Amino acid sequence: MYAIDDENFNRDIWIMPVDSSREPENISRHPYDEHSPVWRPDGKVIVFTGARLDRETDIFYVWLEKQEYEKVQRDRTIEKALKKMEETRKKKDDKKSEPPKEEEKKDKKNGEPKVVIDFERIHERVRRVDIEGSTERGLFWSPDSKKLAFTATIDGKRGTYTIEMPEELKPKLLTEKTGGQARWLEKGKQIVWLSGGKPASVSEKGEMTTYAFGAKQEVDREAHYRAAFDLAWRTMRDRYYDGRLGNRNWDAVRRKYADAAAQAVDADSFGIVINLMLGELNGSHLGFSSRGRSSGSEQPDWNTVTAHLGVRFETDYKGPGLKVRDVLPDGPAEHEKSRIEPGEIILSIDGMSVDPGMDLTEVLNGPLDRDILLSVQNVEGERRQVDLRPISYGAVQSLLYEKWIRDNRAKVSEASDEALGYVHIQGMNWPSFQKLERELYAEGAGKKGLIIDVRNNGGGFTTDHLLTMLCQPSHAITVPRGGGPGYPEDRRVYATWSKPIIVLCNQNSFSNAEIFSHAIKTLKRGKLVGVPTAGGVISTGGTQIMDVGFLRLPFRGWYVLGTGEDMELNGAIPDYVVWNEPGDVPMGKDAQLDKAIEVLSKDVEAWESRPKPQLRKATERER
């Protein structure tokens, strides 16, 4: 019994006889993943976890024998009562007879359960344990097969719960403690597991005892690092997505780096050698993160950072002071109590005179959570004191990003007489997707075409969700009485855009953003404008390398449907290749965006001239 992915990376639960007397059987058969199957000790039931309804992870179970599955609750109650009566009668008989011999006890204890499996339509016997609002995991059985235990958070209380299957499926809290690799022992009726990495046991009353221990370990560093290197090398040899391994002689690569890895003085140095080895593959999504060394020094309550005032200065101003070129929208210098206007001059910061030639970190470095006193001179020469709460450079980047978006939208709107809209997808992640779904309405309202910008998008996973938005088949038009033609949004998977689009991409469009760019071309949904994407497309996972570090492991390649070409080292090539010159974007110039506006305007014109059906009511048909 095992869980395994198929070619479409859907994981199901399978049973296979150890003697290979029949083909493996898929007993779950569902398009969402199932995990962690556990056989009940009596051999009659298999339980597993899966995310079938609303993607909430639940417990599922299947009766292996059809006869057991067909029993109603009344049958089970009668069976339970008869079993109890038989046990009572047997106890009376045992008192009259001689005690069982040791051999008889041993035979009884070692008796294997009889397993009967009716494979026909077994997947239709899968049933769900409905525990609303909870994710269950870590399933394990009591030795008498009566209770199933698992970890969950129910009604806000995290702990280990049990159910009795199938009589009582309402969970009961066994203990507020949780652990991993759990086993429920018949002896002592206790649970043993690992809690926080330490062996522990839980009594029937839910009390946990932890068995902490210490052990001295001596490590031959050279042998240790050599073993870790070999493990990393073998992992890439056996599991890297391309068995050709970048057309490198992988044995020669091992000989090249093995000694250097073994002689590394610490984990960081070891990591450098591993990354050099990975560089031989000339691939994306590769890397090794060493565990490194922990510092025993105490950390301060605050970190020294360079504060930002929310303004930018003129670079050709000679002084005195610093002349404000512009103020970042929504930044601290735009707040009413600390407002600074473009053209004003900051003469001093916290009492220290400033000028364009000085190192501003001398006055701006320190805790971020503080007020900074500025002496500001306006264009009339009047001076005033401004108390300003600064922000971090990370916050500044966010403000500049939002400003860039607003500037692009304004440019597109003005150049197209408000006919075109503009959206930028910052990452192929869920927050960015949800933002785009909102913007299809907010920014697409009344527009005839949409520029979708994935420049500088580092990737993620949402391409197919985006395509569902942009490639929804149109099969009908609806018209309510007194209304215009449209289609009910509640019938669609997501908000939908069926009008013309242009996709902007560049050399910093990476991974899933490249998959999206390739898809737009393959599906002929719109044209690409910009420059070829990075050419870094592999699905990656990772694995722990002993106690030394974490190895990224690209395991799945992506190939263009029309050509069969690997997307790795093969960026999406735009229909219109346009390079922005160095310095253009900071100066407000964007030739790629200009080209997108030009091309999309023509596409909109062609789209609007397409033939449109004449709507005719049933009562208007000729009889």
Helix content estimate: 25-40%
Secondary structure: number of strands: 31
Overall structural class, as computed from helix and strand content, comes to alpha+beta
Tally of individual domains? 4
Number of helices: 12
Strand content: 15-25%
Q: Uncertain regions: pLDDT < 50 for 5+ in a row?
A: none
The largest sheet, given as strand count, sense and whether it forms a barrel, is: 6 strands, antiparallel
- Silhouette: globular
Overall average residue pLDDT: 92
Alpha-carbon distance between the termini? Answer: 65 Å
Task: Evaluate the radius of gyration.
Answer: 33 Å
Which labels suit this protein?
alpha+beta; Transcription Regulator spoIIAA; Pdz3 Domain; 4 domains; five-stranded parallel beta sheet; 12 helices
Task: Describe what you observe in this structure.
With 623 residues, the protein is of the alpha+beta class. The longest helix has 24 residues, at 73-96. Strands 18, 19, 20, 21, 23 and 24 form a six-stranded antiparallel beta sheet that branches. Strands 25-26-27-28-31 form a five-stranded parallel beta sheet, sandwiched between helices. The radius of gyration is 33 Å and the shape is globular. It is 26% helix and 25% strand. The mean pLDDT is 92. The chain folds into four domains: 2-176, no CATH class; 223-290, Transcription Regulator spoIIAA; 308-391, Roll (Pdz3 Domain), CATH 2.30.42.10; 416-536 and 571-608, 2-enoyl-CoA Hydratase, Chain A, domain 1, CATH 3.90.226.10. It contains twelve helices and 31 strands.
